[in-house]
Structure formats: C-alpha cells, structure tokens
Fold these 4 entries.
Entry 1:
Amino acid sequence: LGQPLLGVLEGPRVSRGVLLHLQRARRDSAGVGCLARGVGDACVTEDADGRGGAGHVRALGDELDAVLRERRRVGLEELVLRRNQLMALPAELGNLQNLRVLSLNGNRLAALSGIDGLKSLEELNVGNNPLTSLPAEIGQLENLKILAVGTSGLASLPPEIGNLKALTRLSLDNGQLTSLPAELGRLQNLQFLTLN
C-alpha cells in the first residue's frame, strides 16, 4: 500500500521548523526524526526510504533560500509554498530541474517569472494569488498535466497555453476571464476544464 506524499512549507508562524516533502517511512507517523531549529540544522534523509533519500528533505530551517540551496544535494520533486506571503519567486526556483509539483497558492504573487526552467513540472497550483496574467513561458512546461489558477485576477490566458500538450486538467475558477484563446483547442489531452 503506497502512502501519499506530503509537501509542507507553511508560513513563518508555524514553529521554527519547516517540513518539506515528507513521506511516511519505517511506520512512524511521518518519517521525521527531528525538526530543524535553524538553517544550520537542515538535514537530508539519506536512505530512509530505500532509494538513497533522493528527493526527500527531512527538515529545514525557516529560510526559503536554504530550501532552494538544498537542491544541490537532493533532487527536489515537490515544493509546497502555500500561504507564505510571497510577492515574487526566487531566481533559484528555475534551477529545480527535477521538480514535478509546485504549489504556490495563497501568496501575493502578481506575476510568475523564471518558471521556464522547470521542465519536469507536472503540476502547478497558483490559485489565490493576485495574478492578472500568465507569462508566455508557461507554454514551455511541456510535461505540465495540471494547472490550477483559481481565484485570481487573471483577465486572459496567453496563446502559448496551447503548447501544453500533456495538460489534462485546467482550473480557472473564480477568475476575471471574459474569453478563452482559440489555442485551447490544441489541448487534445485536456479532460477537465473548470471555469466556475
């Protein structure tokens, strides 16, 4: 029985420790041995899951830069940065080549930049942000299967959205869209389109 992966990196008010991409291991409640108190306490699970620890960060300090620097040691696959009051994406984010899931919902992002380097990205959640548009480079995310942009100020979609050949789910709930680009018709794998 496979256990679901959990990705948590909540706001700075959540104790001093930050948990990121945790997976159940060895039958304990979350596979976590300790919580980091600061950046210097960051540690990587070396072999808790029998896969050499690849992609699994056990506990990190409070600073986002420290999380992104850890990517040099770990092929980070899932990053959840919900409700962190982020106003911009760090430049390091585009270097996470193994990243498959990126959740940025509930921040203060007015624009997305530097995402074109996320070639392995399969799921992007940017809902509940004051986005008014998506960048043209969104079309370079050729492995993207799920795009959630609900509850935003999104007024239009770039025509490059038609390049997302792998896209199966597009959620545009509670936005400001008045029309959809004709290029959506090129999304042959699209199964779910939500426009509430």
Entry 2:
Amino acid sequence: VSFTDGMESTLTPDTYSQLTPSMVDQYMESGGKTKNTSQYKIVDNYKWYAAMAVDAESVRELETGKTVSLRFPELSLDALEAKIVSISQEQDGRVVVVCSTNYAVEGIFSCRSAEVELIKKTYRGIRVDNRAIRIVDDKKGVYVNNGGIVKFKEVTVLINNDEVAIIKNEGTKNSLMYNDKVILSGRDLYDGKLLD
C-alpha cells in the first residue's frame, strides 16, 4: 500500500476494543490529514478490521462473535462476510462496532475511511409486491396466471416491508417459482378462474 496517514500506530488490532464513537468522529473529521506519500505500509496478511460508529438501538441484537455482512458501496456492490470482534459501551446513543474479515474488497487497503453498510441478516427468496399477497381459507398465498387460468399458490413470507415481501423458495412443483406471473390485483379471483 503506497501511503501512510499517521494512524498506523493508533488504529491497531490491540486498540480497537478501546474505540469510542467520539474517537471515531474525531478521526473522521481529521480526514487522515497526516497523510505522507513518501512512506509505504506493508500488508503481510489479509485479516483487516472495520470500525463504525452507529446508532446503538439499530444494533441492540448484535453481539461479539456474530457473523454479519459488510458492503462498501463506493468500492463494490458485493457484500463480504465479517465477524464482530468488539462492540463498545454506549456513548450518547451510539456504539462502535468493530468487525474483522479475511475477505478483500478491491481498493480497501488504499483507503482509511469509506462508507460502509452493516448487513445484520440476509434473506434469499422470491421478491413479490405486497399487493399480491392474499389470505384464502386461512392460508397466505398469491394468485398467478398459469396459461390464462388463475392458480392460488400458498407462500411462506420470510420478511416484508411496506412495499415488498421476500417469499421462501420452496422449489416444489406447486410452490411459487421465479418465472410465475404473479397477479397484483383483480376482483373475484379464485383457483381455476379463466382470465380474459
């Protein structure tokens, strides 16, 4: 890595557990102004740390040792797996979460600070507009257009917000499939109805 910023002896694996939100703020405000382009850092392994000051309430359920994902949108759209190694004491409603990982993002070793998204949990499934979800005979499901015939398919909602739901991909013949034509609206829909 072709630069140093004077923080190499301050921000170390031995000191990350002592970081407070105000210390992170102070460093971010300095912007690494002590940068010296005539020196070099030597990276001799791939383990590195990311420290972020975040709202304490948003990470209440997290604990040391838990695996999360980190995304650095300025560097890559891909998320990488990391382990929480430290969560500081709360200070003015915020905490410092420190994560370690062996996965590299191109450009990460050349920057000291970057925007980071902490992803607490990832859901995989089929994304469906909430307007499509119906309750029929006490079963949650969606109607699909199956060759001009309405078919009701029962679903398991993994998570949803105001707009969309993530549906568990059961992978069976009668379950919702990625290529199904989900019906968002309509009146008097029922299993077997012919569509105009």
Entry 3:
Amino acid sequence: ALAGNAVPPHASDEQADVAPEAGTSAAEAQALPAATRIDFPRPSRASALEASPDGQRLALGTSFGEVYVADTRTGELTLVSSIGEGTVADLSWSADSQWLVWSEPVTSFGSRSRLRMASVAKPGSVPVDVTDGRFGDKSPVFTPDGKFLAFLSNRSFDPVYDGHSFDLSFPSPIKPYLVALSAVTPSPFGPSVDPA
C-alpha cells in the first residue's frame, strides 16, 4: 500500500513523488496500479482538493478562482466554474458523488463569499448559486440524507455593548445555517404539516 512518505524532489525535478510504505517489497510496489497524471491547461495553484465518496472523481479549487473535476480513471479534467480571481475553498461532495458544492469569493479581498453547487453527473451543467454573496459563507456540507446543505455564515449582526469602552461589538457573528435543496422539503425546525 502507498503511504504519505513523500520523497523530496531532486534539483531538476519540481514534483514530489510518493514512496511505498515501509516494509513493502519491490514486487508488491510494482503490482500497485500505475498513477494517473492529470495535466492542467495552464499553470495553476491548487487551493482545495476533495475526493468524491465513490472515489471516481477529484474536485480541485484553485487560487485563480477555478473549480475543476478530474476523472480518476481516465485523468480527464473538466472545468466546472471560473470566476477569474480569488481562492476557491471548502469543496464538498454529496453522498452519491453527483453534486459538488464550494465557497468562492465575491470580492477580490475575500471578505464576502458565496456558495455554489453543480451537478457533475451532467457534463456542461451550469453551477447554481446557493447563496448570493452578501455575507461570508463557508464550510458547506451536504446532510447525510441529502435533503439539506449546512454551512457557516458570517451574517449575524447582533450588537452588544462593550464592557470596557463605550462602543458596540459583534462577538459572535458566525452561526450555522441550513438550506433545503428542494422546494418540497419541509423545514426541520418548523411545525409538522403531516396529519397525525
């Protein structure tokens, strides 16, 4: 099995290699499947990497505002979204590996961000805005049942008087939020509409 024992790159080599786990024989190491090289269309800088639950795809966010999905079997790389600048972060897959959600900046200095999601099962599908970018939305994750998207957002502006100076402060602006992914999904917090 391969482990994360990185071998430092040589002076003429700009890529680190992964060495077999200690105690693995040469025959066992050669019996492992060959690595698949994934080439990018232009120089890039990875900011986030997330494997799909089924292991068939890798999602990659870049520091240049791009989201790519790579097929782990063929090495084919598909551009899902590009905003031109800013670091894409917090990639997350749905449990069925069909949907990908991420956080991308709305402003160049990154104080506000929005959540977007795309169906990777349908090539060429257009990403959907989950939030509009008025706040700092981060850390999206699908709930285990796939009905909701949970995330953290810097949008709670409940001022309190400062105990040391005559001023107002916002001590806890980040709170968890939940978005239903279907119009027919009832709120988990509201009253039940099912006749009992």
Entry 4:
Amino acid sequence: IPFTIDVLDVNDTPTGILLDNDTIVENVSGVAVGMLSIADPDTAPTANIDPNKVGKALWVADVGKGSYPAVGPDGTIYVGEYDKKRLLAVDADTGDVKWIFNPNNFGFVNPSVSTDGKTVYSGCNDKKMYALDSRDGTKKWEYLTNGTVFVHAHDETTGTIYAGSADNHVYALDDSTGELKWKYNAKESIQICLAV
C-alpha cells in the first residue's frame, strides 16, 4: 500500500526513518516522530493502522521462478512457472492454488488476464501461445509457433493478441479463437516486451 510521510519541519530533513508497526522513528536515538494512520478524504475519522498486521505475511505460496504474475479483476493471481513447468491461479485472500494448467511439462512465461477477467493468456516454451478459462484453467485455444513464446501483448479494442516468438516472428492472433490474423518477421528472436 503506498503511503506518504509529510515532513512538517522543512529545516530538519529526516534521515534513517524506521517504520515499525504503526510508529515512525527517526534516527536520533529512536525518537518517535509520528504514528502511521490511514486518511480517507471521503470518510471520517482517520483510522490507525493495526500494528498486528503491519509487516506480517498473510500467506506464502510456493510458485517457482521464471515469470511475472498477472492479477485478475477479482484479485486472482496468475503465475507462469518456467522452472516448475506449469501455469497456476492463486487465491489472493488465502494463497490457495485454484487450478494448475500443465498439459505437456513445459514452462510458462508472463501470463496476462483480460479486463473482463474471463481469459488468461500465456506463452510457453512448447512454442505455443495459450488462452485459458480463468475460472478453471481449461484450454480455450492454443497457437503453435516455431519457437518459445516469451512475450505477448493484448489489444482488446481490436481483439488481438500479439505473441513474440523465439522464431523471429510476431504473431497477431484473434483473442477469442486463436486464429492467425497476420505475422511479421522481425529477423531476431522476440524476447522483450511488446507494447500496444
């Protein structure tokens, strides 16, 4: 949760600030200089942060390595695991795994989720781009390229997934069916971010 520390005495720049539970301590012999609080301009009064919940893990999930997670509109976290060779959905409240997709023991990378939360997209080192049902992880479609699909971007206004492959091509795929719209030979492996 982002927060701001307001310095009231501009002549005394704080250094070495320590946030401990709900107390702000400055470096001068541990003098408390304030309390953390949540201020919502739409409501009153200001509520103090519960010190029993600050800095403690709510849950931990063993999700492996190799990908950036995506978060759906319902808070579900989707993680492509390159090392454990699976794509999974994790409940953000509990850390429980909702489903695992691993049809062929290949690693998944950098999933994304549609804005309506119904579809999860991910590239894979089996040379395919996948679309999965976000509720249960069932496959909606797959598209085979000639190299690992490391990155992709989604343009929902045109209904297009742009998949970058290690086979030197960018593929424009229909986001509902996975059908090829066009492909472009970039003459180099596509392993960095695509932007729409």
